[in-house]
C-alpha cells in the first residue's frame, strides 16, 4: 500500500516558484511604497527646515538693517553754532532725507561769524587750533564772534582700520546732541589730545573720558552714544553734503579739504599756523559784509588735508 498526499494537494515546482515570485513582488511593492513615503516625509522636513532657516535669516537681516535715524540735535545746519559765553544755539535734529537748514546770519550785526570745517584727525586742523584757538576763544567768550563748527571725517583711511576720524566726529555729535554748551570745550580738548596721523587714534573709552573732562551733562547717555556710534551715518552724510556744496552763507562752492575756515562768508586762504595773519583777516572782515565778489587775503598757506 502506498501512502502520501495526492497530486491535487501537492504544488508542483513551477507553482512554488510562481508563488515565491508573487510574494517577492508584493514585498518589493511594499518596500517601494515605504521608501516613497519616507522620501516624501524627508523632503517635507527639508523644506520645512529650509523655510525655518530662511525665516531666521530674514529676521536677522530685518533686525540688522536699521531705519535711517535723525542727526544730532543742535546741528540742524550740519554744524553747531556757539555764541557768547560758549552757549550753543538750540535746534531740532535733521530728519532723514531732509536738507540741512542754515543758521540765520544777521549781516547788520557787529558779531563776526566764523565757520570751521574740521577733521579731528587732521594734523593741519590741529596746527590751526594750536595757533588760533586762544584768540578765537577770547572773541567768542566776549561775544565779539560766534563760531560754527562742522565736524567732518575725511582721514579714516589713516587710522589703521579703526576709523578714528568717524568715531571722533560721532563723539562730537553725541556731545552736541546731549550737552551742547560743553561742545566748545570738548572741541578744544579733542585737539589738545589729537593722536598722530597714521596711528590707531584714541579708543572709545578714551573719547568718553575726554567728554567727562569737558564736564558734559548726561555722561552715561553720551558714553552709550559713542560706543554705539549713533551718528555714524549722519557723519558720512554731512561729509558728502559739505564736499558737494555749496556752503550756505559763504562764497565757498564746496569743502575740498580740512580745515576750511570762513569768516563773514569769505574763505580764509592765509597761513593756517600764523595767528597774526588770521587775526588781521578777521579784523578786515569785521566791517565787510559778505558779497559774491569778496576775496580773501593772499597770504600763502599750507595745503589743507584733501578730501578722499
Strand and helix map with partners:
Layout: H1 13-64, E1 80-83, E2 87-88, E3 112-119, H2 123-142, E4 145-152, H3 164-178, H4 183-192, H5 204-213, H6 219-228, H7 232-244, E5 257-258, E6 260-263, E7 266-267, H8 275-286, E8 305-306
Parallel strand pairs: 3-4
Antiparallel strand pairs: 1-2, 1-4, 3-6, 5-8, 6-7
Helix pairs in contact: 3-4, 3-5, 3-6, 3-7, 5-6
CATH class of the largest domain: Alpha Beta
> Runs with pLDDT <50, length 5+?
2-8, 60-65, 289-303
CATH superfamily of the largest domain, called what?
Answer: Glutaredoxin
Estimate nothing, just give the exact number of structural domains. Answer: 2
Computed CA radius of gyration, to the nearest angstrom: 37 Å
How would you explain this protein's 3D organization?
Mean pLDDT is 86; it is low at 2-8, 60-65 and 289-303. The chain has eight helices and eight strands, in the order H-E-E-E-H-E-H-H-H-H-H-E-E-E-H-E. Strand 1 (80-83) and strand 2 form a beta hairpin. A six-stranded mixed β-sheet has the order 2-1-4-3-6-7. Strands 5-8 form a two-stranded antiparallel sheet. The termini are far apart. With 308 residues, it is α+β, with helices and mostly antiparallel strands. Helix 3 packs parallel to helix 5 (204-213). It has two domains: 10-65; 80-306, Glutaredoxin, CATH 3.40.30. The chain is rod-shaped and about 130 Å long.
Amino acid at each position: 500500500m502506498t501512502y502520501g498526499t495526492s497530486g491535487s494537494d501537492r504544488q508542483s515546482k513551477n507553482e512554488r516558484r510562481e508563488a515565491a515570485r508573487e510574494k517577492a513582488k508584493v514585498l518589493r511593492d511594499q518596500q517601494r511604497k515605504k521608501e516613497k513615503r519616507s522620501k516624501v516625509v524627508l523632503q517635507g522636513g527639508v523644506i520645512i527646515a529650509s523655510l525655518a532657516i530662511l525665516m531666521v535669516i530674514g529676521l536677522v537681516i530685518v533686525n540688522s538693517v536699521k531705519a535711517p535715524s535723525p542727526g544730532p540735535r543742535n546741528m540742524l545746519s550740519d554744524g553747531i553754532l556757539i555764541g557768547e559765553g560758549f552757549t550753543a544755539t538750540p535746534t531740532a535734529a535733521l530728519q532723514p532725507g531732509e536738507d540741512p537748514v542754515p543758521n540765520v546770519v544777521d549781516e547788520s550785526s557787529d558779531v563776526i561769524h566764523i565757520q570751521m570745517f574740521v577733521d579731528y584727525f587732521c594734523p593741519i586742523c590741529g596746527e590751526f587750533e594750536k595757533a588760533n584757538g586762544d584768540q578765537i576763544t577770547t572773541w567768542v567768550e566776549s561775544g565779539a564772534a560766534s563760531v560754527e563748527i562742522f565736524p567732518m571725517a575725511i582721514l579714516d583711511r589713516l587710522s589703521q582700520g579703526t576709523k578714528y576720524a568717524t568715531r571722533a566726529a560721532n563723539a562730537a555729535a553725541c556731545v552736541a546732541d546731549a550737552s551742547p554748551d560743553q561742545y566748545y570745550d570738548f572741541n578744544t580738548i579733542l585737539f589738545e589730545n589729537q593722536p598722530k596721523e597714521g596711528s590707531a587714534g584714541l579708543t572709545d573709552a578714551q573719547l568718553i573720558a575726554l567728554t567727562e573732562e569737558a564736564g558734559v551733562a548726561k555722561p552715561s547717555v553720551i558714553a552709550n552714544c559713542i560706543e554705539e556710534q549713533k551718528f555714524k551715518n549722519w557723519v558720512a552724510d554731512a561729509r558728502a553734503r559739505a564736499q558737494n556744496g555749496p556752503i550756505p552763507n559763504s562764497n565757498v562752492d564746496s569743502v575740498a579739504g580740512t580745515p576750511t575756515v570762513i569768516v563773514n562768508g569769505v574763505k580764509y586762504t592765509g597761513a593756517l599756523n600764523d595767528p597774526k595773519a588770521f587775526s588781521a583777516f578777521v579784523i578786515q572782515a569785521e566791517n565787510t559784509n559778505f558779497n559774491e565778489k569778496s576775496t580773501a587775503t593772499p597770504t600763502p598757506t599750507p595745503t589743507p588735508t584733501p578730501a578722499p
